[in-house]
Amino acid sequence: MNTTYQPIEWLGDRVKILDQTKLPGEEVYLETRDYRDVAIAIKELKVRGAPAIGVAGAYGIAVGALGIKVEIREEFLKELETVIETIVGTRPTARNLFYAAERMEKVVRQAHHKAAEVGRNVAAIKRALVDEAIRIHRDEEEATRKLSELGAELIKDGSTILTHCNTGPLATTGYGTALGVIIRAKEQGKKIKVYADETRPLLQGARLTAWELMKAGVPCTLITDSMAGYFMSRGEIDCAIVGADRIAANGDTANKIGTYTVAVLAKEHGIPFYVAAPTTTIDLSIASGKEIPIEQRSREEVAYFAGICVTPEDCEISNPAFDVTPAKYITAIITERGIMRAPYGEGMGKSSHR
Ligand code: MRU
């Protein structure tokens, strides 16, 4: 798939990020050498979607390392710790961010264990961190390309597919997860149609999924989140497919708030419900979805619609950004290493990154 837009690009000494909060109205890019700008971009969802957050986080650590002025190794490592803490402190749910940070930390440790002159050389560590961030980027692109190819086999010709949130190239820097599967199925010549949930409160479906599907030439109808049951009950949906922010060892899956509702509705209507995610989203260190940290975001995101307050002032508001879909509602999990079906435990161990 060739897109005309790049959500994240490495420019040798700085990172370029497409500001997704301005889409679809404007294509505005942010270029920075400051890791704090990258942290803000992740926090404010200028760059978003689990794999893209991981890639942005890796580049954030890389620019942070390049910006450290001290030459003494111990002092450099201390400052680097602050950079990494700032980056991983941005959003708690997507596993990919922590996975990327762990890979970057490993590179620093390996540099330490190499020959003394290399290990002690701050410039060499900086170079190793930049190289690793580029590799993390490439690996995520490759993983989503593969999983899209595998997942497309599950999509029957003539299907109408429901999706939630945004899981395309914008969310992954690569092919996409759920949207990658859909777009690949279309590229294979299958006649498919998509119902896209608008995805309140930040409208990733309305603003981003509709935009990406239209660019990819996939017929798409936008619906509000509460309409999904209506279309399922009329027999108009053949399958549902979503991405993931974190998958526990038992297959429980955290994804954008509202995903759980779609999964329960799908089960009630006998519709397959698929999750598509690279293995970097799987977290084997936690047994079940109960342990997945769920990000709570500001009341303003719910209270305001296009800059206008739509609630009574001081009205009590709750805004969890994700929910957990228990594995029993998930027909299959599509990864770059294969398609897994319940019971997930054992297969997950074989196919995931540790
Ligand atoms: O809050 P967001 O926009 O970062 O949430 C994104 C999602 O929930 C996606 O569905 C998920 O990250 C999978 S993206 C390939």
Largest sheet: 7 strands, mixed
Structural class: alpha/beta
Report the CATH architecture of the largest domain: 3-Layer(aba) Sandwich
Question: Rg from C-alpha positions?
Answer: 20 Å
Give the integer mean of the pLDDT values: 95
Key phrases:
single chain, 354 residues, alpha/beta, Four Helix Bundle (Hemerythrin (Met), subunit A), Rossmann fold, 2 domains, 7-stranded mixed sheet, 4-stranded mixed sheet, 42% helix, binds 5-S-methyl-1-O-phosphono-5-thio-D-ribulose
Architecture blueprint of SSEs:
Elements: E1 8-10, E2 15-18, E3 29-32, H1 35-43, H2 50-66, H3 73-88, H4 95-113, H5 116-119, H6 122-152, E4 160-163, H7 169-172, H8 178-187, E5 193-197, H9 204-216, E6 220-223, H10 228-233, E7 239-242, E8 246-248, E9 253-256, H11 259-268, E10 273-276, E11 282-283, H12 300-303, E12 304-305, E13 308-309, E14 322-325, E15 332-335, E16 338-340, H13 345-351
Parallel strand pairs: 4-5, 4-7, 5-6, 7-10, 8-11, 10-15
Antiparallel strand pairs: 1-2, 2-3, 8-9, 9-14, 12-13, 15-16
